Amino acid sequence: xxxxxxxxxxxxxxxxxxxxxxxxxxxxxxxxxxxxxxxxxxxxxxxxxxxxxxxxxxxxxxxxxxxxxxxxxxxxxxxxxxxxxxxxxxxxxxxxxxxxxxxxxxxxxxxxxxxxxxxxxxxxxxxxxxxxxxxxxxxxxxxxxxxxxxxxxxxxxxxxxxxxxxxxxxxxxxxxxxxxxxxxxxxxxxxxxxxxxxxxxxxxxxxxxxxxxxxxxxxxxxxxxxxxxxxxxxxxxxxxxxxxxxxxxxxx
Length: 252
Description:
Elements lengths: L8 H25 L2 E8 L5 E8 L5 E14 L3 E8 L5 H14 L7 E7 L11 E5 L3 E5 L4 H9 L8 E7 L4 E8 L2 E8 L6 E11 L2 E6 L8 E4 L5 E5 L2 E6 L4
Parallel strand pairs: 4-5
Antiparallel strand pairs: 1-2, 2-3, 3-4, 5-6, 6-7, 8-9, 9-10, 10-11, 11-12, 13-14, 14-15
């Protein structure tokens, strides 16, 4: 389905202000949110650094924020882009803490624009992100996939036909909960949207085996050759005639 288918003194003073302001905003935000913040840095086997931040809110809630920088690129003074792998979903408040720390630790104030993109453990870089936090120049956070709150709601929800379902997944690109279920004498694939009016996109699918691989594809109007494959980790992978598109992790 196509619907499912990126140097004068005055200048010196300005640069000083540009550098000072984000730092001040970070400490103000920490004070407002009542956080205590600590950092650990460990080197992973692949040579990348994994960062762990621990913070505590006024309500006593504690959370470890674990992430690693997996890609970065820079155009001096103009733009910096950073790809980040998160250990798990985090709240928008926690995402802001990570974003501001990444901004400062990577000389963000010296760039006009800083683009930070976040991926969850099972997500493929370049095939849709879970969230972004861009400084344009002020911070703008956008959670594209399932939020922590939405995840909790849908983990508790039982679908009426679940006992006859092959599997259930979360498609972060929409975001939606995806199911493939037996219906009468056939198979139906549903996308339950997690935002807006919670609409359900329904598609009748057929099951084929190609080269020993079980594929699910739309029964009608499959002009782009799209098909879905469940891998050995129970993830649902979407392909078309040009190859892999994105992965939807199993959702329990």
